[in-house]
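Notes from hallway chat w/ T.B., transcribed later so I don't forget. T.B. wanted the structure written out for a chain they're using in a teaching module, and asked if we could keep both sequence and C-alpha coordinates in one place. Agreed to drop them here.
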Amino acid sequence: MKKILFMMAVLSVVAISAEVKEGVGKGYKGDIKLGVEVEGDKIVDIKVLECKESANIGGKALPKLIEQALVKQSADIDNVAGASRTSKGFKEALNNALGK
Protein backbone atom coordinates (compact mmCIF):
# COMPACT_ATOMS: atom_id res chain seq x y z
CA MET A 1 0.00 0.00 0.00
CA LYS A 2 2.85 2.40 0.82
CA LYS A 3 4.40 1.76 -2.61
CA ILE A 4 1.13 2.58 -4.36
CA LEU A 5 0.71 5.82 -2.39
CA PHE A 6 4.31 6.77 -3.12
CA MET A 7 3.87 6.13 -6.85
CA MET A 8 0.65 8.16 -6.90
CA ALA A 9 2.44 11.04 -5.18
CA VAL A 10 5.32 10.92 -7.68
CA LEU A 11 2.93 10.83 -10.64
CA SER A 12 0.99 13.77 -9.20
CA VAL A 13 4.16 15.85 -8.92
CA VAL A 14 5.13 15.01 -12.51
CA ALA A 15 1.66 15.87 -13.78
CA ILE A 16 1.65 19.17 -11.90
CA SER A 17 5.09 20.24 -13.10
CA ALA A 18 4.24 19.89 -16.83
CA GLU A 19 2.29 22.77 -18.34
CA VAL A 20 0.85 23.16 -21.83
CA LYS A 21 0.94 26.65 -23.27
CA GLU A 22 -0.67 27.70 -26.53
CA GLY A 23 0.59 30.13 -29.13
CA VAL A 24 -0.57 31.33 -32.54
CA GLY A 25 1.42 32.57 -35.52
CA LYS A 26 0.52 33.59 -39.06
CA GLY A 27 1.46 30.99 -41.67
CA TYR A 28 1.08 31.09 -45.45
CA LYS A 29 -2.59 30.00 -45.54
CA GLY A 30 -3.69 31.10 -42.09
CA ASP A 31 -2.99 30.67 -38.42
CA ILE A 32 -0.70 28.01 -37.01
CA LYS A 33 -1.71 27.13 -33.45
CA LEU A 34 0.70 25.19 -31.25
CA GLY A 35 0.41 23.46 -27.91
CA VAL A 36 3.80 23.59 -26.21
CA GLU A 37 4.40 21.36 -23.20
CA VAL A 38 6.99 22.79 -20.85
CA GLU A 39 8.51 21.63 -17.58
CA GLY A 40 10.25 24.56 -15.95
CA ASP A 41 12.40 26.08 -18.71
CA LYS A 42 12.48 22.91 -20.83
CA ILE A 43 10.32 22.38 -23.92
CA VAL A 44 9.14 18.78 -23.60
CA ASP A 45 6.78 18.48 -26.57
CA ILE A 46 5.20 20.56 -29.32
CA LYS A 47 1.91 19.66 -30.97
CA VAL A 48 0.25 21.38 -33.92
CA LEU A 49 -3.30 22.12 -32.75
CA GLU A 50 -4.46 23.98 -35.85
CA CYS A 51 -2.93 24.50 -39.26
CA LYS A 52 -4.22 25.38 -42.71
CA GLU A 53 -0.89 25.00 -44.50
CA SER A 54 -0.71 22.73 -47.54
CA ALA A 55 0.15 19.11 -46.81
CA ASN A 56 2.93 19.07 -49.43
CA ILE A 57 4.83 22.12 -48.24
CA GLY A 58 3.84 23.42 -44.81
CA GLY A 59 2.70 20.00 -43.63
CA LYS A 60 6.10 18.53 -44.41
CA ALA A 61 7.93 21.48 -42.86
CA LEU A 62 6.22 21.39 -39.46
CA PRO A 63 7.74 18.11 -38.19
CA LYS A 64 11.20 19.43 -39.14
CA LEU A 65 10.54 22.70 -37.32
CA ILE A 66 9.30 20.85 -34.24
CA GLU A 67 12.39 18.66 -34.20
CA GLN A 68 14.72 21.67 -34.49
CA ALA A 69 12.88 23.56 -31.73
CA LEU A 70 13.05 20.58 -29.37
CA VAL A 71 16.77 20.14 -29.99
CA LYS A 72 17.61 23.86 -29.65
CA GLN A 73 15.01 24.46 -26.91
CA SER A 74 14.17 27.68 -28.69
CA ALA A 75 12.36 29.29 -31.61
CA ASP A 76 15.77 30.46 -32.83
CA ILE A 77 15.84 27.82 -35.58
CA ASP A 78 16.48 27.67 -39.32
CA ASN A 79 13.66 28.08 -41.83
CA VAL A 80 12.73 25.04 -43.87
CA ALA A 81 13.60 25.63 -47.53
CA GLY A 82 10.50 26.36 -49.60
CA ALA A 83 8.35 26.95 -46.53
CA SER A 84 9.55 30.30 -45.26
CA ARG A 85 6.11 31.64 -44.30
CA THR A 86 5.24 28.42 -42.50
CA SER A 87 8.59 28.59 -40.72
CA LYS A 88 7.98 32.21 -39.71
CA GLY A 89 4.47 31.40 -38.45
CA PHE A 90 5.74 28.41 -36.49
CA LYS A 91 8.43 30.49 -34.80
CA GLU A 92 5.91 33.23 -34.02
CA ALA A 93 3.51 30.69 -32.48
CA LEU A 94 6.29 29.09 -30.43
CA ASN A 95 7.50 32.46 -29.15
CA ASN A 96 3.93 33.43 -28.26
CA ALA A 97 3.44 30.18 -26.34
CA LEU A 98 6.70 30.74 -24.47
CA GLY A 99 5.78 34.35 -23.69
CA LYS A 100 8.56 35.90 -25.79
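Follow-up for T.B.: Residues 18-98 form a domain with the Sufe protein. Chain: A fold (CATH 3.90.1010.20). Might be a good example for the class.
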